[in-house]
Amino acid sequence: MNGLQRARLAISSCLALAGLLAVALSLATPRPALARETKQPKAEAGRVVVVTVATARRQVVEDWRRATGTLEALAAPRVAAEVSGKLARVLVEEGDAAHAGQTLAVIEQDDYRLAVEQAKAAVAQAEASLRGARLRLQRLRRLVAKGSAPRSALDDAQASHDAMAAALAAAKARLRQAERALEKTVIRSPVDGHVDKRLVSAGDFIGAGHPAFMLTTAGRLRARLPLAEALAARLKPGLPVRLKSPLSPEKVVRARISALAPAVDPAARAVHVLAELRNPGGWKPGASVRGEILLARRESVVVPAVSVVLRPRGYVVLVLRGNKAREVPVTPGLALADGLVEIRDGLKAGEKVIAEGAGFVRDGDVVKVVAREAEDS
After folding, report:
1. Are the C-beta atoms of residues 185 and 54 closer than 8 Å to each other?
2. Is the pTM of this model over 0.85?
3. Domain 109-184 fold
């Protein structure tokens, strides 16, 4: 075989090996994060597996569920005009702070001032008419008492007096209404907050009920967090919530569920949890918020996550019996942040379980413990 043939053979062999490797990688499946699926080791005479051991212990386990949601303004009023007219002045722009009672815009007041003057004149006229009716009534009472005038004339005078009194009351009501309309030409902020949108400009004609500004309040906020609908039965007002926002990642706000949205979001199949909070400073409506909701707090048995092994019949832990390992079927629960996993059923506190090396041990194997973890670690 010459050099060229040997080179071609070497290249063909490399390509074949590369193809086999690609197939093997495509068939590989990821292992679970809390357990490892291993093939049962073949029996070997005198086989001893080196392992470490941990002690199953009881501790308080908290079931926190995470969700990313949105911050909302607890109050976001649309400020509308209460009377019609042309806007004479607009005094704020988008982004400006607004305090409760602050003037945002003013509608031209000339027509409303004239209406007030007209109402005042009507009141004065009604007062004069009432005074005349009162004097006539007094005279007729004296005349009737002397027998110089008929009783019917007194009755007519009394009715006229009462009508004039009612007319005066109506005139005064119209005056108050005109003065109130004049006051409403000044559009004011109903809350402390910021101008989110300005919807009008000076010179615009605006009708009663037409929105002029959109305000947002940032002092009190509400976090809206979507959780899977399967958790709906476990969610209720009052459950603790921890909140963080990218706007100030160092701040953690503690709150409680204030309410649950009455309907499931059909698009996301999620239940919306609402939690009210006081703004810690720098948080803004519309920003994202990361929340953790405490669904349950219980005392459970925990073991290192590496102790839980997935075998064909299910999850097991290998308990140390003398110098041998024994498989015990278990029901895993929550994966904890400190590298532990909750065991809901199948294991008692105080039992010694194999930690490192558990995935390579079979039921009945002789093991050699090279390190023991502290009882309370």
Report:
1. no
2. no
3. Helix Hairpins (1.10.287)
